# Entry
Amino acid sequence: MNKLPRIVITGVGLTAPNGNSLAEFRANLLAGKANIREIDVRYMGKHPAGICDFDAKKYQSRRELRTSTRAGSIAIYCAHEAVADSGINWDATDKARVGVYVGITEHGNVETENEIYNISQFGYDTKFWTHHHNPRTVANNPAGEVTINMQITGPHYTIGAACAAGNAGVIQAAQMLQLGEVDFAIAGGVSESPGTFGIFAGFKNQTALASHDDPNKASRPFDKARNGIVISEGGCLYTLERLDDALARGANIIAEIAGWYINSDAGDTVLPDPVRQAECMRGALARAGMKPQDIDIVSTHATGTGKGDVQEIIAMRDVFADCPNTKVNNTKGFIGHCMGAAGTLELAGNLGSLTDSTVHPCINIDELDPDCAMQGLVIGAPEKVAKVDTILNNSFGMLGINSTLIVKRFVA
Amino acid sequence: MTAEEIKQIVLEIVADIAPDEDLSNVKPDVKLREQLSLDSMDFLDIVMELRKKHGIEVPEADYPRLASLDSCAEYLGPKFAEKGK
# Structure
């Protein structure tokens, strides 16, 4: 097999509940600033959620916003920000050679629920159902909206991979770049999930919806008193290029994609399987040509559910048993679970460590659950280390999809 | 309801559909889609809003009758009258 091209990240565009740029997001992670608020969920009253306050009008007209979905707006904002961050001459870029790959946990629930509510005001007469429903709810919507807004004529689609979708979007882009299908990719994940009551009700009835008097303490992975997931919106798209192309245009290389792996539990629909998760991490390490000891930071997926966090730690203790120097953190305590965006957002939150040699902590751990104790877990305050060269990012999702993405400092 | 009042109702609907458009100089005798950036989906929004807000049904065969403000007033006048407006 021919040696495949090396793939690098050259730009990051994001919106998270606690930041609308990588710099702001990183600063708040290091400062311990969460941003979760209570929102009114249709039929369900107040629940904690992560909501972004990016300026949607920055890249969309009011007319576009009227027909756009929230996921589409988030994707458009992140795509523009990522392209700007990449420094590429966008006007001179051949848009037919640009691919857009956006991970989603779910899409269409928001619009469908809104329309059912809408026609309920008209006696459920479907003649009041909006004609915008189908373009808003087709699964490729967030990626397609990016192509329309940015006049990209290369391929676009979403990758439905539950909460592993952000990683899966990046992996898809890396593969398409390696195959030569595109020359420039915009990839990652988005979430509009706080707009759908169904996801709140589903988690609540699964006894997996977080609650706390203080919304900023509701998302608490690994804490003994954790009681579920905080549902959040957000987005994070990277620009990815083949290394040779990035070097040729003098791009700032943020990190190199070192390895990845996706596998399936083939078991329970919701309870993760630590054996398969460990296989996933080892598969990514093998592709990267690394040993567990080579990983400086593991960005965990843990969502704050009673069982899920323990399962991931079982897998982590297995894979990283002999890694005294590997640090472990989690980002959901700050921003909740950004669903399709979780993978890329959480990795992005750690990218700064390649330059500032600081590991942002897990927050909201008042009492560490002994079943979640893990060598190297960074709790409460950032930890300065000698150097960070590698980050392993886990994202797992329902139906037993596991994804691990490893990035490393670019060295020529 | 006068023709001018009907034109104003249509303009208010268009203002919601196309919030970036300057509607201060819309020519009543020129097709809306020739002077404003409206696509076919936007046009269907006009039909939907007439249905939702005013209970007025516009059959597909009559869509061309909504082309300009003048034709809207002419076509919708009797329909508003039927509604007692």
